[in-house]
Inverse folding.
């Protein structure tokens, strides 16, 4: 799989994958929810680290890397600290007043609901023009969250979008890029954080466009556990995800999906929502564990 990777279910990128795990995007709220959910599954005997492909986008890229490094419990403690001291986390979450160039990029990003290259390039150009923190700041931040080191596993696949070409990029151990640069790119929300250098490309958040899941990367897998922030309604913002979920199932994958039982947009980048998200994830993960264990045991 090359760095630039066409979005395609016909390609069946997941062929030969036994256990697939998709960790979608959704800000600091969804980082905390995923950590709570996956930790609960592990406590109930589900060996989620045995997934042989983990697709991580934006928030999910951090969790995917931490999971592969067996660091979920450490990250859970760090999230608890941030939740107790939200002011200390405000800069990391981007919750501050934006410059006009940042607001312009953010507004264009929010209006973009398709993944065609022209639309992605429009967002990318605005993201490149926005006045943000230095790119190295993001690399240092994700390294502090996910830890130092080389690729933790060949299973981890991190998505981001090329700001110049509008192509979807998938970064993995064989790509030659560092996991820190891949995570920094995958979490680079347009206008909020700067695009990142990934090899010879400048890339931004993998959730730009129609999806923050990239389920086509698991098409053809035997089983798939999919964690999504917004669910799979057949209309509105999640219409593409609903279509993609159907296509994933049509590819032959047995799929289990999990979605936070409640969420508001204001919580996405709000550090004070971390305790709520983490406990919600734990509660749902404990309840879902028998079904996920059954799914995992079939592959």
């Amino acid at each position: 799989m090359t760095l630039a990777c066409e979005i395609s279910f016909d390609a069946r990128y997941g062929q030969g994958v036994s256990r697939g795990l998709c960790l979608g995007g959704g800000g600091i709220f969804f980082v905390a929810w995923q950590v709570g959910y996956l930790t609960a599954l592990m406590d109930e005997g589900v060996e989620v680290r045995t997934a042989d492909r983990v697709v991580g986008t934006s928030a999910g890229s951090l969790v995917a890397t931490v999971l592969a490094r067996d660091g979920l419990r450490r990250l859970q403690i760090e999230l608890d600290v941030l939740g107790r001291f939200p002011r200390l986390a405000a800069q990391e979450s981007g919750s501050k007043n934006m410059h006009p160039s940042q607001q312009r990029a953010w507004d264009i990003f929010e209006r973009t609901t398709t993944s065609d290259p022209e639309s992605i390039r429009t967002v990318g150009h605005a993201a490149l023009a926005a006045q943000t923190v230095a790119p190295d700041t993001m690399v240092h931040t994700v390294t502090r969250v996910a830890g130092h080191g080389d690729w933790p596993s060949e299973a981890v696949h991190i998505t981001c979008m090329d700001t110049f070409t509008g192509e979807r990029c998938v970064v993995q151990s064989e790509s030659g890029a560092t996991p820190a640069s891949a995570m920094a790119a995958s979490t680079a929300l347009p206008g909020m954080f700067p695009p990142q250098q990934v090899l010879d490309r400048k890339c931004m958040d993998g959730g730009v466009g129609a999806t923050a899941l990239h389920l086509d990367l698991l098409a053809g897998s035997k089983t798939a556990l999919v964690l999504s922030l917004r669910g799979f309604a057949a209309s509105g913002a999640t219409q593409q995800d609903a279509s993609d979920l159907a296509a994933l199932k049509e590819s032959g994958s047995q799929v289990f999906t999990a979605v936070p039982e409640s969420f508001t947009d204001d919580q996405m980048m709000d550090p004070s929502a971390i305790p709520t998200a983490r406990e919600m994830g734990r509660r749902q993960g404990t309840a879902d564990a028998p079904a996920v264990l059954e799914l995992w045991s079939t592959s």
